[in-house]
Design goal:
By secondary structure, this protein is an alpha/beta fold. The chain is built from three helices and eight strands; from the N terminus they run ββαβαβββββα. Strand 5 and strand 6 form a beta hairpin.
Amino acid sequence: MLDLDDVLVHASWTRQRGWRSFKRPGVDEFIKHMAQYYELVLYTDQNSTYADPILDRIDPQRNISYRLYKNSTYYVDGKHVRDLSKLNRDLSRVLFVSASEEAYALQPENAIKVGCFPGFQGVLWRRGELWRGCCGGGGIVEEW
């Protein structure tokens, strides 16, 4: 499972240009590579009208199998959280990659926190290599 904001893209707003989204370097290769080994699902707290045009550009081959939006989150204490137990998947085989601890507050044991993009670039591909090596055979997550 992948979060959108600050993991795959970063959005910024200026008075001169309005809203712009910037893709994390290497995200195209990351998605293509990881889709060979895992079912990729986007789980974002954004509306589909925001997320779909971005995903259509960064993933034109639709390697991300499913897209879950704001209407699939729970609003708890003023924050949108994701409940992985509602996915109809074995949670021992689910990882959620996010830059926001609030997003995975209900299942922190299933989360990998990555550094926010744009400040922390390139981390997804390096972790992709680790995921393929460690989790492909049911490895442990704690050592990351």
